[in-house]
Amino acid sequence: MFVDSDDYLAPDAMTLMVGKLNEFNADMEIVGHIKFDNINANEEYLYDLDDNRYYTNMEALDLILKFKVKGYICDKLFLRENWNKLNLKFENNRYCEDWFPIVKYMINAEKVAFVNKGIYFYRQHSDSSIHTSNIRVIKDYNYAVKTTIDYMQKKSIKTDALETFKILTFLETIHELYLVLGTSKKNIYSELRENGLNSWDFKIKNLLNNKNVSTKKKLTIILWKLRIYHLMKKVNF
Questions:
Q1: Residues 17, 18, 19, 21: what is their CA dihedral angle, to the nearest 10 degrees?
Q2: Distance, CA of 52 to chain centre
Q3: Which candidate among 23, 25, 77, 140 keeps its CA 20 to 30 Å from the CA of 128?
């Protein structure tokens, strides 16, 4: 398990996690977490899943790709032996370095267990990457997405959730560009191209037919494709 030095675990965290892992003979586990600042416990993130059963690796992978499970490394438990066999490492000096190792491990796993209780306390800082919007963070985000997609294609992973992943990550990319540049600037479109962002493009037909993407999100992407996204006064996701 990977625990940041300024986060902490609930007192019964390891008892619950190891117990659930052994119950299903699982090789990966995902738990609920609580985001908090230095004053209060703020938001508890629980997954609307049945923790009285295990999920196959493909079931769990679909949840990650559809953004129904967070792609954080800190709220997950791995078998060390399996982690080492896959030679999983984090790239230095990159944001969003969690996704690819998680997806690679999950693809090579068999059973994934869940604990629907907030037992990992995730401290928030105003200067952390989760609160930072700049071109470098967006580039690293895109690198993580592309690396993940390339690996799935190399392994011939067949899942409809991959198309949802492409759409949602594109949406996140243009949202972050909006935060950096502002919608009043028409160069948000050229910035996407010039910085090599979103090289995993998708077809509008696939967007319109995707039941996992809300109408509002579809409209946002269509406005971008029509190059009138910058006319929107406010974007809410």
A1: 90
A2: 24
A3: 77
pLDDT surpassing 50 at residue 237: no
For residue range 158-171, list pLDDT tens digits in order.
Answer: 899 999 999 999 99
60, 107 in Cβ contact below 8 A? no
- Measure the CA–CA gap between 29 and 18, rounded to whole angstroms: 9
DSSP string, 88-152: --PPTT-SS-SHHHHHHHHHT-SEEEEEEEEEEEEE--TTSGGG--SHHHHHHHHHHHHHHHHHH
Cα separation, 1 vs 12, in Å, equals 15
Backbone angles phi, psi at 197, to 5 degrees: -85, 150
H, E, C per residue of 85-104: HCCCCCCCCCCCCCHHHHHH
Q: Which residue has the higher pLDDT, 66 or 99?
A: 66
Q: Are 165 and 147 in contact (CB under 8 A)?
A: no
Q: Which two tokens stand for residue 177?
A: 């560009």
Give pLDDT, residue 133.
Answer: 65
Contacts of 73 (CB under 8 A, 6+ apart): 2, 98, 101, 102
Beta pairing, strands 8-9 & 55-56: unpaired
Q: How do residues 89-111 score in pLDDT, each as one tens digit?
A: 888 888 888 889 999 999 999 99
Alpha-carbon distance of 160 to 139, in angstroms, equals 25
